[in-house]
Design a protein that fits this description.
Elements: H1 7-10, E1 12-17, E2 20-24, E3 32-33, E4 37-40, H2 49-53, E5 60-65, E6 68-72, H3 84-88, E7 94-96, H4 100-110
Antiparallel strand pairs: 1-2, 2-3, 3-4, 4-7, 5-6
Length: 111
């Protein structure tokens, strides 16, 4: 299931982890990490495509348990809004918070 893009208004910020917020809903186990660059840890499979593709090293590998890896947006303030991570994520577990005019730019790129 894709990340809930309305998480900032429908989920509760429960903690801070490595300079970013962590959000939970009643049904989330691991939550969404980040605000500007948000990763749904319940959906992320740890493929690390975003980590490899990001030009600004926004993500770091986080070992959640001995066999569970996640892409943690520890440096979300460095995000350039290239949207590469969001577009490459096979699970649609990443959402980049855009400014209003950036949505039009993305639509134009995808058309």
């Amino acid at each position: 299931m894709p990340i809930d893009r309305s998480f900032q208004t429908t989920w509760k910020q429960t903690e801070t982890h490595r300079n970013h917020s962590v959000w939970h809903s009643k049904t989330s186990e691991l939550g969404i990490h980040g605000t500007r660059v948000a990763v749904d840890f319940d959906e992320c499979t740890g493929c690390m495509k975003c980590l490899k593709l990001c030009p600004e090293e926004v993500f770091e590998l986080l070992e959640v348990s001995s066999s569970l890896l996640k892409a943690d947006p520890v440096n979300e303030s460095a995000c350039l809004d290239c949207l590469a991570c969001e577009l490459v994520c096979p699970e649609e577990a990443i959402f980049i918070m855009r400014k209003p005019q950036e949505s039009d730019t993305l639509s134009a790129l995808l058309d």
